[in-house]
């Protein structure tokens, strides 16, 4: 459902009109603007004291620039837009997220992409679109079914039977319709309204939402199936009444994590218990250690920019995912483990690329804040927040989050259709369906000291 922003979005483009040489054409290209952007200029002409922000509503289709018979119009970029974000959240990423959260649709840029061919992080990875010419693979238009659902939990490798021939029960699974969970934002304070909005969005989408233990009281009884409490190992004891009503739990990887994991599974054998593992250089070894201890769901949590934590020269999450996935494959246990990748997931393409690198699904936190208008200014979202994000209305915020995830779902289907893949489970670890700049450079320039 379209949900316009409660704040004034910062536009990127405007058209500069050098009207001194205007011939006053009766078929002026400005009045023919398909997006009616020039109506805001007329309002400004009538009242010059009005704010100039509406002048940056241009969609950059360039039809007026090309159609002006005198060549008086030119495209300009809003300097305020260029000041948004940080080194990871670039301005165009923020603007794209705002648009998707408003419309729930895949954004289309009139001016096209004019950026660099490659970059750091996920920008050094390209997906295989070799099947894009086959219209039967175009699942977004309903011509074929493409599944985006995944399972969280240990998948049985074989059927097991008891002494009397009865089929033994498999370990619990949580099936979600999208390969993602809603996570706690990596920056700022997660206030009551934001936590409620995230929980409401998770319920509408049918996916889990991570909440801190102190926020569990915000959830109503019918929302508990969508709640994943994040608990320190020492806090598991005494939570048995709560654990019996949950489907999923997440425990911080700290001293006593494995003992707390066993305690939680004893309290509720049908509970899916994940360990939240900070992304460090020994992540692969720690994943195998946790697997040996019975843990089958592991949340690899990078920092807000998708890098290893506490390292002088950190690797990006895609490199760590490939390493962890490969180690699990070598040990012959990959299908028994669910990997959740969190941190640095900012766009729908990052979700698909993380899955290609070896994740089963991703955790989304920061994009939910950007969907509400966050400008990634690094503040605490208190009274200094320029859009007062802590005061957001719950229903409005939940719908913006749902719209964003809907747009991501459509983009994931586009990627899967272009690859000729009918279910996202098959995308996991399919590195042969992608190209990595680092590998290409190594192959091309390896003998000359790459």
What does this structure look like?
With 450 residues, the chain is an alpha/beta fold. 30% of the residues lie in helices and 14% in strands. It has 13 helices and 14 strands. The longest helix has 26 residues, at 394-419. The N and C termini lie far apart (50 Å). The model has no long low-confidence stretch (mean pLDDT 87).
What's the SSE blueprint?
Blueprint: E1 13-17, H1 38-46, H2 63-67, E2 73-77, H3 79-82, H4 91-103, E3 125-127, E4 150-153, E5 173-176, E6 180-182, H5 192-205, E7 209-212, E8 227-231, H6 240-243, E9 248-252, H7 257-267, E10 272-278, H8 283-292, E11 297-301, H9 317-330, E12 338-342, H10 348-357, E13 361-364, H11 366-371, H12 394-419, E14 434-436, H13 437-445
Parallel strand pairs: 6-13, 7-8, 8-9, 9-10, 10-11, 11-12, 12-13
Antiparallel strand pairs: 1-2, 3-14, 4-5
Helix pairs in contact: 4-12, 5-12, 8-9, 10-12
